[in-house]
Amino acid sequence: MSAPTTRAGRARTSARTLRTDRWWLPPLVTFVGLSLFVIYGLVRTFMNQWYWAPEYHYLAPFYSPCLSTSCVPGASHLFDVPLPGWFPPPIIVLPFVLGFRLTCYYYRKAYYRSFWASPPACAVTEPHSRYTGESRFPLILQNAHRYFFYPALLVAAVLTYDTVIAFHGVGGGVGVGLGTVLMLINAVLLWAYTLSCHSCRHLVGGRINHFSRHPVRYWMWTQVTKLNGRHMMLAWASLISVAVVDLYVMLVAGGVFPDLRLIN
């Protein structure tokens, strides 16, 4: 009989980590990037102006869909909710958009590490003495991610519609400006980010025991899986594109400079 083997216990060290690389840099960059976006988003939400450029049919993403009766003429979508003029229109849709982003698997990892240091990086101890995971309020609400996916699809569809009407020429007809190109890129990135979501991957390919019996769903699952492998990149790219397009439309609508027209 072979001699019984014993497993070595966990290494005892007083150091927070034995890593010698710049492990703190990624969470720091994430902290700065997300903080800047949150600050910009709050300012734009309560600014409540300069979100619609009628001559180009440009609508800022932060105000889309615009569902309030206080929306400026031409910026409204579908129906109007009777709200006081001081109430920012983004407040109607923002909970659903933020809900999808905040409960996203990648963003959870990002802000857990960068804001809560739980943990700040691999092989680095965290300052918290207890770990309860996502089993208690408010983190148990992370399980709602699958439900936020459906409103996110609707928002992506509305932003696609905004992009289509942005192909509007000055004075009529079809036209293309820099804003049109930026909105098109933003729509593509938002669709790629939304469809690369883990919930979408499960929706199209989950609960299937035999892929051979479901060739269409299997093909869809393979395509979403390819996107899912780039989910982190798409999360950042779409976040940046939303801010860039919103800022561009704000500057154009505010009269800082006219849209750079490429066609008409």
Automatic annotation (TrEMBL):
Assigned keywords, A-Z: Membrane, Transmembrane, Transmembrane helix
Protein name in UniProt: Succinate dehydrogenase
Transmembrane domains' residue ranges: 23-43, 86-107, 147-167, 173-193, 233-257
UniProt superkingdom: Bacteria
